[in-house]
Specification:
The structure is a single chain. The protein has 156 residues and is an alpha/beta fold. The chain has ten helices and five strands, in the order αββααβαααβααβαα. A five-stranded mixed sheet has the order 1-2-3-4-5. Strand 1 (17-21) and strand 2 form a beta hairpin. The two termini are 18 Å apart.
């Protein structure tokens, strides 16, 4: 099932794809690859975060193709600030940062000491390859079926 957002379906500007549930059948899993987005388009994700309520959710953030120059633009910083202030973060259980560039890894490492422990524990940096990523998925209860769906997206 994919979001019914016009930006997602008709204009192909971004994706916030529903993948399935964790083994608990309550926690929803969403996949995003923002690589083809301008900073302005990234702001549309905020609207999708509201769609996750009231359910707990996991976010698979595939950074393959994300450019460093786009990460440092004010609109992206604004989006991250807005995200951190939404109540959607309360129900966000895990963020898997897949295929991070060296810059993304460095930024997360720089920010890490300034994040509260609860937030730090939600972020899973997956930079050691597919097997490491699958192990991290399994550790939080992502089933084989959902892992296969995510893997297909990652290998596109």
């Amino acid at each position: 099932m994919t979001s019914v957002c016009v930006k997602c379906t008709q204009q192909k500007i971004h994706s916030f794809d529903f993948i399935g549930h964790l083994r608990d059948n309550k926690t929803r899993i969403y996949y995003t690859n923002p690589s083809n987005n301008s900073p302005e388009e990234i702001l549309y994700y905020i609207h999708h975060f509201e769609e996750t309520k009231p359910h707990p959710w996991v976010w698979i953030l595939d950074c393959n193709g994300v450019l460093t120059k786009d990460l440092l633009k004010p609109k992206v910083v604004q989006m991250l600030k807005e995200l951190s202030q939404t109540t959607s973060c309360d129900t966000l259980l895990h963020v898997f940062v897949i295929n991070p560039s060296t810059t993304i890894t460095a930024l997360l490492n720089i920010l890490n000491p300034f994040l509260v422990k609860e937030t730090r524990n939600k972020i899973h940096l997956c930079s050691l390859g597919l097997i490491d990523t699958i192990n991290k998925f399994q550790n939080v209860g992502i089933s084989k079926t959902e892992i296969n769906l995510i893997t297909k997206k990652l290998l596109k």
